[in-house]
Amino acid sequence: MNGSGTASGGTALDDVLRGLGRVVVAFSGGADSAFLAARATRLLGRENVLCVTAVSASLAASEERDCADLAVEWDLAWRSVRTEETARPAYIANDGDRCFHCKDELMDVLLPIAAERGAAIVLGVNVDDLGDHRPGQRAAEAKGARFPMVEAGLTKADVRGLSREMGLRTWDKPAAACLASRVPYGTPVTVGLLGRIDRAEAALREVLSCAGVAPGNLRVRHAGDTVRIEVDPTTFPAIAEHHEKVVAALEAVGYRYVTLDLAGFRSGNLNWALRGDSP
After folding, report:
1. Which of 99, 110, 238, 258 has its CA 20 to 30 A from that of 232?
2. Is 44 exposed, middle or buried (0-12, 13-18, 19+ CB in 10 A)?
């Protein structure tokens, strides 16, 4: 669809959801899962849709709060559950299949919930997601998850367009991957490290917000005692103007060197290492 035909795409998605009848939505609060949760709830009814947020060290605290807020705003049937991917040695090792072990843990937690409700587990995956290295999708599919937006042929642009038509405030929400995506492959992922990254991003957002700047896309990529800031190039002037506060904020959470990536924000940036080439 490439961002066009959103009306027909919405109809196709509705057909898929009606065919499923009852669903458990893996609800991270991002634009995709939020759209799927809202669309399914409006179509199937609150009694047939349970939105579940997996809470662990890999989920930013701000994202957990936003999930709870969205559930209230949209009257979603919602609950949070604990997942323990950070206790899995294969996850901690952080090789190229780290996301597989995370989604495998998520499915192990969601499967009993879905079975009790006689529901299918659905994830907010869109067609554009199929082109990147995402082993988590393989893990979810292997344990029976469905991807209704893929089945309906919806792209990321379609999801944002339909979200806007529905009046969802998440229609333009920046992408928010799990915190482990800031850690280079091969560097062990620990609860302490994820907490540091969460604090670093929250501190950077606070500096920019106090300066009257909406951060938009923002990542802090961990590299030992160095942190690499990725933001949209339009945010570069604000980083430069307030560089002393930025440095102080990130030093306060334990980084010695603070750098700005002049290539700007790039989703899936660290996956280049798996392909053996460069951006």
Report:
1. 99
2. middle
